[in-house]
Model the fold of this input.
Amino acid sequence: MRRGVTEPAPSASSDAAPSVVGGVRAIRAWVDVAIVVVVLVSTNLVAHFTTVWASIAAVPVAAVVLLGMMRARGMAWSELGLSPRHWKRSTVYALACVVAVATVVVVGAVLPVTREFFMVDRYATVSGALIAAMVVIPLQTAIPEELAFRGVLHGTLSRASGVRGVFVFGSLLFGLWHVASSLGLTAGNEGLSAIFGSGVLGQIAGIAGAVVATALAGALFTWLRRRSGSLLAPIALHWSLNGAGALAAALAWHLVA
Done:
């Protein structure tokens, strides 16, 4: 610096610029979260309280719409758990999940002490269980729900609140997502009816238990998503818990027939 010449003081506006940009990004991130939550709540209501066709199509359609919306808003494939570079690693986790769950579920369905918990009325026939496990559950539940929760919601929450928000809010929302589908849960399950009964209090207990269980499952799915970097592993675990459970229910009914 030459003598007698002073450097200009840093501009206050230049110091404020990064914080302004950061604030705008944070607001945008929470707006994205709000959009996703509103779409999910609306989808859940439509799927469970309108028409049969809506119950079939609502969740898959909503998952695709949310995916397109967040891609349009600049979310990368890796943020959504759909980057091909993670597929190889995630496949290993996926296979391990399927084998582990299938083993536990089959043992549970065969043992008389736990068999009643697998005796769900809607899976009493082998044909019905096969259709549910191989078609309905993957296309209507496991894949679209993982796209919506561990894909889109996971990505938006990561931007807005970081890892802790993903685990806490994401898991809680996933648990609450299952309130409507748990209505009448105890009445249609031999083991749960024996414990809680099929009355109003039993139904409330069944719903509360389902919310807690699915919230914990959501945390596990989120861990798998982060650990493997892809949706393949949580999709596989989600399918195996539901799909293997449907097949085990048919097995349990067959064993007592």
